[in-house]
Amino acid sequence: xxxxNRAPISADPASWSPETQLVHGGTLRSGFGExxxxxxxxxxxxxxxxxxAEARFKNEDxxxxxxxxxxxxxxxxxxxxxxxxGAEVARAAATGMAAVTAGLLSFLSAGDxxxxxxxxxxxxxxxxxxLCPRFGIAMTLIDGxxxxxxxxxxxxxxxxxxxxxxxxxxxDLVDIAAVSALAxxxxxxxxxxxxxxxxxxxxxxxxxxxxxxxxxxxxxxxxGRCLGxxxxxxxxxxxxxxxxxxxQTGPSLSPFNAWVMLKGLETLPIRVKAQSAAAAFLxxxxxxxxxxSRVIYCGRSDHPQAALARKQMTGGGQMIAFExxxxxxAAFRLQNALKIILISNNLGDAKSIITHPATTTHxxxxxxxxxxxxxxxxxxxLSVGLENEHDLAADLEAAVAAARSA
Length: 406
Prior knowledge:
- The chain is α/β, with parallel strands linked by helices.
- The chain contains 14 helices and 12 strands.
- It has 2 domains: 16-263, Aspartate Aminotransferase, domain 2, CATH 3.40.640.10; 269-404, Alpha-Beta Complex (Aspartate Aminotransferase, domain 1).
- A 7-stranded mixed β-sheet has the order 1-7-6-5-4-2-3, with helices on both faces. It has a 5-stranded mixed β-sheet with strand order 8-9-12-11-10.
- Helix 8 (198-201) links the parallel strand 5 (189-193) and strand 6 (211-215).
- Helix 3 (72-85) packs parallel to helix 10 (255-287).
C-alpha cells in the first residue's frame, strides 16, 4: 500500500486542497450547529444598543449591518471562492455582468482610457464599447492575442486592460502573464474574465492579473438554477475602489442564490474534470466528421495557441467551438436535429448546451465585428455537460449528418 507522506492537516483552510476548500472553506455555523450552510434570508440586522449600531457603521465593531452591504450566507460564498482562487478578497454580485461592470467602473473615471481584447461576450463588449464612452472613458479594442497590439494601444491616460481568456465564443487566448507584466510597467490595472476556464483550470491572479471576474451563473452554479457573479482582487483594490462602488450602487447577490452557489462549489472539481474529459473526446470526434470544417478546442494540439493553453491552463476545458459547412442554414439544421443537447444561450451546465453565436450572444455586435472576430454563420458553441460522452457523440454525429442532407 502506498504511503501517504502529506504533513498533518492544518486548521488553516488556505493550506487545504481545492476539493476540501470547496466543501468546508468559509463555513459559518450558528448556535444550532447545522451541517449545511445556513440560509440567512434577512434584509437587516438588529443591534444590542444604539452605541453598537454607531460602532458598526464606523467599522469599529465587527458584524453585519444590511444585506446590501454584506450577509452571512453571501460572505460564506465569497470566502469559499476566495480560498479557491487564492485571492485576498472576494465580493459577490447579482450577475456576471454586474461583476464585470463593478470590476471596471469601480476604478475608471471620465478622462481615463481602457484597452480591451475585441474577442469577448457581446454584453462585455457593450460595457467597453458603448457604456464606457458614454461616461467619458475612452476605449480601444485590439487583437488580444498580440502583445504588440497591447503595447501600441497604451496612452498616457490608459488605466485598465480587460480581456476574456479563453474568449467567448472563439476560444482565443490572451497571455495573462505577458499582458499583466506590461500593465504593471505602466501602472495599469488588468481585469480578467475567467468564466470559460473556471478557477479549476486557470487562476489569473497567479499569472499577475489584478482583478478576476466570474459569472457564477455558469460553472459555479453548474445546474442552470440561479444568477450570480463575483469579483476577486487585493485588499487595496477593494478598499480604494470596489467596496464603496458595491455598497452604494447595490449589485447585491441574493442570499438564496449565494446558498445555491455554495452547493455548486462543493461539486465544481468533479464536474469540471468530467466535462473537460468529455469535451476533449467530443472535439476529436467532431474533427473527424464530414461537414465539420473546423474544430476549436483549447486541449487540442491544432488550437492556434496550443502552447499558451498548456502554459496557463491545466486542462482544455468544457467549451468547444466548431464550424459546419453550409453556413447558418446548416447550423440551424444541426441544432434542430439534436435529441439530447439543448439549444440555449447559457453554458457551464450539467446539461450539454449548443448556441449559434451569430444569431444570439453576438448578434448585436453586427456582421462586421463578427467577421473581424471570426464568428462565421456556420460557427456553433458547445458547452459540454455531464451526459454520457458516447451518447453525446452519437447525438452530434446524427445532427451533423442531418445538416449535410439538405
